[in-house]
Amino acid sequence: MAHNTIKMSKQTKIFKINTTNFSEVIRECADIIQRGGTVAIPTETVYGLGANALDPVAVNKIFYAKGRPADNPLIVHVASVEQLDKLVLEIPPKALSLMEAFWPGPLTLILKRTETVPDITTGGLDTVAVRMPSDIVARELIRISGKPIAAPSANISGRPSPTTATHVLQDLEGKIDAIIDAGSTCIGVESTVIDVSGGKPAILRPGYVSAKKIEEIIGEVDIGYSDHMVDAPDIARSPGMKYTHYSPSATVMLLEGTQDLVSNKIREMYADFTFKGARVGLLITSTDLFSLTNDVVYLGGKDKPEEVARNLFMGLRALDEKGVNIILADGSFTREGVGAAVMNRLRKASEMIIQL
Fold first, then answer.
1. What distance in Å separates the CA atoms of residue 248 and residue 238, rounded to the nearest whole number?
2. Under a CB-based contact definition with an 8 Å cutoff, are residues 43 and 154 in contact?
């Protein structure tokens, strides 16, 4: 296997997957999962840090590697609806309708759990979060390993989520067994999470699948999250609800308003902070600001939320690598579709939000 693997440390191997070695890489990584190890895997959303969801010792390795709080539940990934038999007590009609509409894909459902699922995987809750990824690498690894795979984002807890294998290495090299490198993820933000475990369905985390699309399938849903929530609620029923997330080392300041107002304010703040000796990076959706500095990342057009989503975490990490102290983030893009999820992530990453 020397031609397929490169030793990155005493512990972490990287498998750069392609059409010629696909089956071989999947088999070797499935063996790691079966033996209770950890593998960072690509999904359509972000890279996840995977382990056997039904093995509490294996799942604990995820928490240890990430430095993740133990009361922050994990999402369990499956390759078929049949795998849910061991995980959930029942699939309500609305949950089934959502599965038929959006699986495989970036939608996580919260359902009542069975006793087979360890408490460590669910944060001690009576529910479990489940989804079927559309990424063929992730789904084939689950299928060949024969294990449902718990997989939160493959990063140090609180950092921007990884959308490339390089991002995973930056955070977790030497802390996990292996990484499957399949290039950049195609969506760039985590899955939508909806609680369908009882009562009125509630979206607990926005993602690529919008509330509007969900309501077209099952009718009205509640919005059960806050873009600003950090220390509440006491019990987090979904990843992303309770703790600080998505933050780079630099201080992020988010500017919200029309593009003209935001662009003018960014120019003003850039000049002020630079005069005071700070190194300022820009995360923007307007090409008019390119001339201010080389420390700039263009997220995409303000009316192209899918493009902005794909580039968001990459942009935060890229500016960190440039060594900036402050990141001025442009929040003038559309909130339609995945734009709501991008704004959720940016607000949680920001230490200051300026509304213009």
1. 22
2. no
